[in-house]
Amino acid sequence: MKRIAILGFMLESNRFAPPCGRADFEERGTYRGADITAQARAATPSIYLGICGFYAEMDRLHGRGGWEPLPITHASSQPAGPIEEAYFNELLTEFETGLTAAGAVDGVYVPEHGGAIAVHTHDPDGEVFALVRRIVGPSVPVVATLDLHANVSDVMMDSVDVQIGYHCNPHTDIRERGEEAARVLSELMAGTKATAYRVRLPLVAPSVTQLTAEGHPYGDLIRLGQTKIDDRVINVTVLSGFAFADTPKNGMTVIVHTRDDPALAKSLAVELAAAGWADHTRYRTNMAALDIAVRRAVACGEDAVVPSILFADPADNPGGGGRGNTTYILKALLEAGVKGCLFGVFFDPALVEQAQAAGEHTAFRARLNTRETALYSEPLEWDARVVRLHDGEFVGHHGMVAGKSVSLGATAVIALGGVELVVISKRQQCLSSDFFEALGLDVVGARSIMVKSRGHFRAGFNHLFPPERIVEVDVPGLTSPNLANFDWRYLPRPVFPLDPDTTWAPPVA
Ligand SMILES: [Zn+2]
Questions:
Q1: How many distinct structural domains can be found in the chain?
Q2: What whole-number distance in Å separates Cα of residue 251 and Cα of residue 504?
Q3: In this model, does residue 508 exceed pLDDT 80?
Q4: CA of 144 to the centre of ligand 1 (A)
């Protein structure tokens, strides 16, 4: 009977966003002990899907009676700022106590994001990995899954045996990577020795250029990496990283894991990094100016023959630490008199309370951003009507929330002019058409839809909008793809595209 410990923490940190702590992790999802197992095997889980995939594959490989899950703690926040020091240390203590109490284990699965920073350190993920290694000792296999927005440190490399990154952006393969972690961990427990080599490039690509569909450079590199998998190669991971963490460990990273063949791991990692660097000038943004986007939305609203358009606000992406409440685009749409527009999801619990106080089908003066004072979260007032009040609970059907339980908190749909705005109480990005349809809104009949999301929405709207009917709008925000807008402190420099003349040469043997 294999005894497998499971623990991890998931946070993508934006250094320019306010710090986060206990409330953020409790709202998104912190699970302990048997609750982790129950969630992992639930029909419509709310826990991280990598854990569900890990359990399912372990059950398939070993039978439910053939392995013993020892779930400790899995703490997950919406992407936010750096984690507060005291709360992070509390989490570390909880991991340490739980893993020590578990006694002798045969393996550890660490479902981690990998893109966190803390107020006091660039590398909280490394601290988690090092703690696990310290407790279980050098010979127990430890396998981690990482978001492809992870920034990998030397400590992370040295502390776990295999780090498995996603292949897909939007992240539609989270469950599959959890399944892969189960297979790799099982192989290591059977005696295979993994060796790894990592190459980091001076390339910090803007978020919107990191798509993995056909025709995108990042997807091309990941697919090239997968052609290298054979009986000598366990895993090839290519991480685009998360710029806004602003750390010395930023930069697109290739990690090759082999079956005890360090020379091959190195030669393959270098070969793939060189292929990635050869494409570095392809990581260019293609956003529309606000006035052009607004003109197109207005045109859609005035002519039912014009195909509808899906607009995105990548600069205020709660999935990258944005607050989900900037009003640059909304204000411009309202002033232009747009018609038939759905807009969501807008994070403003105080506005939900205003709508609740007014009641359904009632007119009121909407006052946006009365409670929050974060940078860019500017106030706006507009005459409104409450269309619908809702508890914000639903099960998704599309994209990254397909089959998942979603909670928006108390929710209100309010009409401001020709815009129907979905206002929520738990900050998150709009991941799919479910975020409108679950509230009774007509996504097919809408003339334009505006989402606060950088790119994950694409997987949840691709049944309605092909890529040519998606427009990214260039406005200010905490997650603006215009990297030159930010005051970087810790990125390794020079780095492309901030320093356009950056060069890179493969490490010599
Ligand atoms: Zn990610």
A1: 2
A2: 12
A3: no
A4: 15
Question: What are the backbone angles phi and psi of residue 191, rounded to the nearest 5°?
Answer: 125, -10
In angstroms, what is the span from residue 190 Cα to ligand 1's centroid? Answer: 31
Does residue 249 sit in the same domain as residue 327?
Answer: no
Q: What is the number of other CB atoms lying within 10 angstroms of the CB of residue 259?
A: 17
pLDDT at 404 over 70: yes
- Tell me which residue of 152, 219, 250, 220 sits closest to 498, measured CA to CA: 250
Same domain, 293 and 244: no
420 and 447, same domain (yes or no) = yes
Residue 505 is assigned to a structural domain of this protein: no
pLDDT digits (tens, 9 = 90+) for 213-234: 999 999 999 999 999 999 999 9
Per residue in 82-91, is it b (16+ CB within 10 Å) or e — as a string?
bbbeebbeeb
Distance, CA 171 to ligand 1 centroid (Å)?
7
Name which of 487, 8, 15 is nearest 247 in CA terms. 15
User: According to the model, what pLDDT value does residue 509 have?
Assistant: 60
The pLDDT of 163-171, averaged and rounded, is 98
Whole-number Å distance between alpha carbons of 166 and 148: 5
pTM of the model: 0.95
Express each pLDDT in 17-42 by its tens digit.
Answer: 999 999 999 998 899 999 999 999 99
Ligand 1 centre from 414 Cα, in Å?
30
Residues 6+ apart with CB under 8 A from 389: 355, 356, 359, 360, 410, 411, 412, 413
The range of the structural domain enclosing residue 201 comes to: 2-282
* CA 153 – ligand 1 centroid, Å: 17
- Interatomic CA distance for residues 275 and 291, integer angstroms: 38
- Cα 75 to Cα 82: distance, rounded to the nearest angstrom: 15
Q: What is the CATH number of the domain that holds 118?
A: 3.40.50.2300
Residue 222 CB-density burial (10 A; 0-12 exposed, 13-18 middle, 19+ buried): buried
Least confident of 37-41, 79-83, 242-246, 374-378: 374-378
Is 54 a domain residue? yes
Residues 187 and 309 in one domain: no
Output the pLDDT for position 507: 81
- CA 95 to ligand 1 center in whole angstroms: 24
How far is Cα 285 from Cα 295, in angstroms, rounded to an integer?
21
The Å distance, Cα 207 to ligand 1 centre, comes to: 9
**pLDDT one-digit tens code per residue, 34-78:** 999 999 999 999 999 999 999 999 999 999 999 999 999 999 999
CA 295 – ligand 1 centroid, Å: 31
